[in-house]
């Protein structure tokens, strides 16, 4: 990752839940899930969660976990000076709401309602986005499709109501391609809906997000709830690799023509248990908290 961590390639592309509220409940995720393998080590890694990511000692991301219960995460929004904090609310021991609030005055506020299955995978969601400019506000409903095993996300369909209108007018369809268990590509089509509410593919513009050349190590994001990064990726699709078990060594974004595609290389150094601890220049660092 190194200096490219800020995803400068996305500039111009937009590198880019409500019953009872109980944040003391236990979320369905496994801290330090050994999804990436342990190189045959017989000693299991200590239970841990990603606590923060720094770049030249400046915090880029920070996550709060109470015991083993995820509470919130703060993420830098691409190349901007804005930081979004997503706070989780629990319903019946599952994440039921995630609200993203920006650090800059006038930032859009994104309020997600999410439904998780027993494995912690999101199968439906609604986002109410509130802007200081009423015309920029919207409500989006999402439907998630998984493979027959119920583990791999294969498609997300979003239908959006804008500027307070009661009818859907826009759609986004994201289709995923896998390399093993890792998301290799997310093809994102955006366009308008027909009068009957169906996607009008003739209006669709495509952006392709490719997450390439995965390693065989453990993703630091796998120590935190998949639903949190799923919601964030609905807003910033370049982050969909974070719900994969391993780490890509390249993120390539191909926006609609005529804009050029740009590749961002990412590098890692690992600890003895195959968790990334830094990029190869040791400017960007992953900090974990042992549970």
Mean pLDDT: 87
Computed over alpha carbons, the radius of gyration is 19 Å
Q: What is the strand tally?
A: 17
Give the low-pLDDT segments: 1-37
H/E series, N to C?
EEEEEEEEEEEEHEEEEE
Rough outline = globular
As a percent range, the share of helical residues equals: under 10%
Supply the CATH architecture. Answer: Beta Barrel
Q: Order of strands across the biggest sheet?
A: 14-13-12-11-10-9-8-7-6-5-4-3-2-1-17
Q: Report on the biggest sheet.
A: 15 strands, antiparallel
- CATH topology descriptor: Porin
End-to-end gap = 27 Å
**How many domains, in number, for the residues?**
1
Number of helical segments with 4 or more residues: 1
CATH class: Mainly Beta
Output the structural class. Answer: mainly beta
Question: How big a fraction of the residues is strand?
Answer: 35-45%
